[in-house]
Amino acid sequence: MRVLGIESSCDETGLAVFDTERGLLAHALHSQIALHAEYGGVVPELASRDHVRKTLPLLQTVLDEAGIEPQAIDGIAYTAGPGLVGALLVGASIGRSLALAWGVPAVGVHHMEGHLLAPMLENPVPEFPFVALLVSGGHTLLVEVQGIGDYRILGDTLDDAAGEAFDKTAKLLGLDYPGGPVLAKLAEQGDPARYRFPRPMTNRPGLDFSFSGLKTFALTTFQDSDKNDQTRADIARAFQDAVVDTLLIKCRRALQQTGVMQLVIAGGVGANQALREGLGKMTAEMGATLFFPRLEFCTDNGAMIAYAGACRLQVGERQDQEIVVRPRWSLEELSALATP
Ligand code: KG4
Ligand code: ZN
């Protein structure tokens, strides 16, 4: 079965074709970074309009790259939520329209299920059950995954998501949008011994997170400093070390608590090298196995949506033709995949 995936939940338009026999045939991405940069953050209306402009040209790109005609597509998967409502509606409307025109089924995919299953596009693939750390701009979740659609949330953030904390801290240090990767780059030049930030919520039991205090800590540290370039790098380093350490502590705890020895990491912050290295070391010490997507599939992309949708379409999941998106949508509301 060949499935077209459409991702448009935020500031990236991603298209891909996934073949259940042959794997990923093609994927293409347009990032809106340049569009939103002058505003210092995503402007929802501009995001929607840009998805309108980019989706069909990217569709042609992936069809050409896969060397197929539209008739070769057997199903369509589009991101139905969570995300920006206008942006989601663009992908959903185009996905539904193409499905109607091509006479194929379509399915709305949960964006975080896409992230969670992205490591399935790599080799080796993780086997169920596994624990997933989902760290993106909007979410920080620890999830016990028994199978596709069978998700138990072990921990969530009480305030800012990890990516959001990276972005906000970057902004207050005067770094360019999107801050996460820029802050991570700057942290490489930082002195790890100059500042020490707290590791929030690690002294009490449980797997929830809270990152907004770290951002405030960074702000007061910066305000009280000489504000020079080295200080910026030192604060970036202290902030990143605190986030990474906190995520490591909670991941270790989640593995111990569940007895599951496979850890999957996904979402934009999963592209962070310090986090990847830290988790690699931690899982090796525990005798656990770590899986993560290639860097380009950590951040938003169409391939993960095509894959997640293909899993559901393949077992006969169908939705009617109504265009429904869910800007807020918990992973736990998904249904476990029926066995084919
Ligand atoms: O998964 P994603 O592309 O979009 C959402 O679903 O939110 O994640 C984007 C987030 C942003 O907050 C971005 O700053 C962060 O991931 N991010 C990073 C890195 N690359 C992306 N954060 C820290 N280090 C990175 N290398
Ligand atoms: Zn995402």
UniProtKB/TrEMBL annotation:
This protein's species is hydrothermal vent metagenome
Top-level enzyme category: transferase
Keyword Metal-binding attached: yes
Keywords assigned by UniProt?
Acyltransferase, Cytoplasm, Metal-binding, Transferase, tRNA processing
User: Entry's SUPFAM superfamilies?
Assistant: Actin-like ATPase domain
Q: What is this protein called?
A: N(6)-L-threonylcarbamoyladenine synthase
Q: InterPro entries recorded for this chain?
A: ATPase_NBD (IPR043129), Gcp-like_dom (IPR000905), KAE1/TsaD (IPR017861), Peptidase_M22_CS (IPR017860), TsaD (IPR022450)
Reaction it catalyzes: L-threonylcarbamoyladenylate + adenosine(37) in tRNA = N(6)-L-threonylcarbamoyladenosine(37) in tRNA + AMP + H(+)
User: What are the protein's GO molecular function terms?
Assistant: metal ion binding; tRNA N(6)-L-threonylcarbamoyladenine synthase activity
User: Which Pfam families does the protein's record reference?
Assistant: TsaD
Query: Which residue intervals define the domain Gcp-like in the entry?
Result: 24-307
Q: Which GO terms describe its biological process?
A: tRNA threonylcarbamoyladenosine modification
